[in-house]
From TrEMBL, chain A:
It comes from Plakobranchus ocellatus. GO terms for biological process: DNA synthesis involved in DNA repair; DNA-templated DNA replication. One of its GO terms (molecular function) is DNA-directed DNA polymerase activity. Residues 1-31 are annotated as: Disordered. It comes from the Eukaryota. This is DNA polymerase delta subunit 4-like. Residues 10-20 have a biased composition (Basic residues). GO terms for cellular component: delta DNA polymerase complex. Signal peptide: none annotated. InterPro entries: DNA_pol_delta_4.
TrEMBL record, chain B:
Pfam families: DNA_pol_D_N, DNA_pol_E_B. Residues 200-413 form the DNA polymerase alpha/delta/epsilon subunit B domain. Belongs to the DNA polymerase delta/II small subunit family. One of its GO terms (molecular function) is DNA binding. It is found in: Nucleus. It comes from Plakobranchus ocellatus. GO terms for cellular component: delta DNA polymerase complex. This is Polymerase (DNA directed), delta 2, regulatory subunit. GO terms for biological process: DNA strand elongation involved in DNA replication; mitotic DNA replication. CDD domains: MPP_PolD2_C. Residues 52-180 form the DNA polymerase delta subunit OB-fold domain.
Length: 104, 472
């Protein structure tokens, strides 16, 4: 039945919820992976927070990187590599504020 | 036989078919012209409106910064160019950034909301400039007030400028401007040398469907262009018109009735929109012209297309008769077209109108010239002029210098030859509203000289208030 509450479906977005029941073979290895992911995300966060490259909300990180490159601002090539390697993961491709849907 | 570029429909109509004795009148041929559309950048492909305008400003500043750096170095030599966060008090330097004009009278939704707090309601005004306006320059990170030699009255929001000056130690937060510098106008492709005179006609503001439409004068214009008016010499002259640009407001504002939005459906069900009839007569009018000459149609503020710049071309289905001819060129607003290698850019007048509203300038031609000097066709977009939220580029930046730069739907006809520093020659043109003036503009592509051509009809005005009948 049509009503106002199903016309505007509200869905809460949860920022990168860790998957339950993920295979954990060895605790040490997982810690290592986590550390590298954290380092990668830190690099991307720093990229987002570099204001010279322009605003970041609403466009993908890759678009923003390409814009910076186009205008000769020399963004880190490392960032681009990271983004291409994780092209399917919105945690990598979208900017830091992506989960705050009200900002867009 | 009249020539169009590549007629899809075979046009079998003689220019001089007024006279029946064909052997006496010479055969006049329409002068051909090559038309190229250069407006790909104004075609909006993905209509995504969930982005902020910040990207457009960022893109504009980044693109223009290179050009301004060049201009500033050329003008002032070796003075350090600083970002605002690098400013040191008391040091003379150059700052490049976007102008923002702080205006008290500018309509604001927040002020309207604050009515609830018993504040003064906003005055309804036609122009919002005021003596208390302040100029602010901003770059990616910061903003700072500008004082000194930069005229607030003639500046508008959104222009990228380079200013040289000092932020004094004892008056922090203000930048004292010594001098201002705008971009270097991009180089111009040399104008092709034409062997014969070719004319292009600019006309705007037919305002069909409104109280001011002038069907008789429009018919005169169509007849003149198609060679149905005047003697043989006159017809020979009009055969040299190779292109017509119709620059905006083909339909009147009054065709945009909003009754259907506010009224109940059962009340407005049987009324047809005022624009339907107007579009029909527009189609018939254009169909006369396109059988004989290339016509470029640029939509304007009140035309049935999208409202925000860049306005997309008319859909072919709206003009079924005239769209069958490939001599009808649907353009965007702003338009960018090349006729015989002469680059023609312009708008239907909204950017100029908006600058008029938000500055104290009165000369429309000067505003048009300013937009060329600033290197941006619509600097007040997206601030006070509706505009699509572009991300990858700012299409309004003038990156190639036009030969003819026009604004349609203006109160009067004016023209001026603008001469750039590196030899660019641009014909600036304000095209008057046809419904007001009955005037079109002819430009000779060979010499870039412009001349107005007026259509007048003198009918006795019937005063309907006086009844012809005697008292009963």
């Amino acid at each position: 039945m049509a009503s106002i509450s199903n016309a505007f479906v509200q869905r809460k977005r949860i920022a990168h919820k860790p998957k339950k029941g993920a295979p954990s073979t060895s605790g040490v290895k997982e810690e290592k992976v986590d550390a590298s992911v954290k380092r990668d995300l830190d690099i991307l966060k720093q990229f987002d927070l570099t204001l010279e490259y322009g605003p970041c909300i609403g466009i993908s990180r890759l678009d923003r990187w390409e814009r910076a490159e186009k205008h000769g601002l020399k963004p880190l090539p490392e960032v681009r590599d990271l983004l291409i390697r994780h092209a399917a993961d919105p945690l990598y491709t979208e900017c830091l504020w992506n989960d705050f849907s009200t900002l867009r | 036989m009249i020539y169009s570029a590549n007629p899809q429909v075979n046009v079998e109509q003689s220019l001089s078919n007024v006279s029946d004795s064909a052997e006496e009148t010479p055969q006049l041929n329409r002068i051909k012209s090559k038309v190229q559309h250069k407006n790909e950048r104004f075609i909006v492909k993905d209509r995504s409106f969930n982005r902020q305008y910040a990207h457009l400003y960022a893109e504009r500043l980044m693109t223009m910064r290179k050009r301004l750096t060049e201009a500033a170095i050329q003008k002032w030599g070796n003075v350090p160019i600083k970002k605002l966060h690098e400013l040191v008090g008391g040091e003379r330097c150059i700052v490049i950034g976007t102008l923002f004009k702080h205006m008290e009278l500018r309509p604001s939704i927040l002020k309207e909301v604050s009515e609830e707090h018993n504040l003064m309601p906003q005055p309804i005004k036609k122009r919002y400039a005021d003596s208390t306006d302040k100029l602010i320059i901003e770059d990616e990170l910061q903003r700072i007030f500008l004082v000194g030699k930069l005229e607030t009255q003639t500046s508008v929001t959104g222009v990228i400028v380079a200013v040289i000056g000092i932020e004094p130690e004892d008056d922090k937060g203000k930048f004292y401007v010594e001098d201002v510098c705008y971009q270097l106008l991009p180089a111009q492709i040399a104008r092709p040398i034409l062997e014969q005179d070719k004319f292009i006609m600019f006309v705007s503001g037919f305002e069909l469907g409104g109280p001011e439409e002038r069907p008789f004068q429009m018919q005169m214009l169509a007849d003149l262009v198609c060679g149905q008016l005047g003697d043989v010499d006159q017809q020979a002259a009009t055969a040299a018109i190779c292109h017509i640009v119709v620059a905006g407001n083909l339909l009147s504002e009054s065709t945009q009735d909003r009754d259907t939005l506010t009224k109940a459906k059962y009340l407005s069900k049987k009324t047809s929109a005022g624009s339907v009839e107007a579009v029909k007569s527009l189609d018939e009018f254009l169909a006369q012209l396109v059988t004989s000459v290339d016509v470029t149609v640029v939509p304007g503020e009140f035309d049935p297309t999208n409202f925000s710049l860049p306005q997309q071309p008319f859909h072919q289905c709206m003009l079924p008769q005239s769209s069958r001819y490939n001599t009808l060129h649907h353009q965007t607003n702003p338009c960018d077209v090349s006729v015989e290698g002469i680059r023609i850019m312009g708008t239907a007048g909204q950017p100029v109108e908006d600058i008029y509203r938000y500055s104290e300038m009165d000369d429309r031609l000067a505003m048009l010239e300013d937009t060329l000097v600033w290197g941006h066709m619509a600097p007040t977009a997206p601030d006070t002029l509706a505009c699509y939220p572009f991300v990858k580029e700012d299409p309004f930046i003038i990156s190639e210098c036009p030969h003819i730069y026009f604004a349609g739907c203006q109160p009067e006809y004016k023209c001026k030859m603008y001469k750039g520093e590196s030899g660019q020659e641009v014909l600036l043109l304000t095209v008057p509203r046809f419904s007001q003036s009955g005037t079109a503009v002819l430009v000779n592509l060979k010499s870039l000289e412009a001349q107005p051509i007026s259509f007048h009809s003198h009918f006795p005005i019937v005063d309907e208030s006086v009844s012809p009948e005697v008292d009963k």
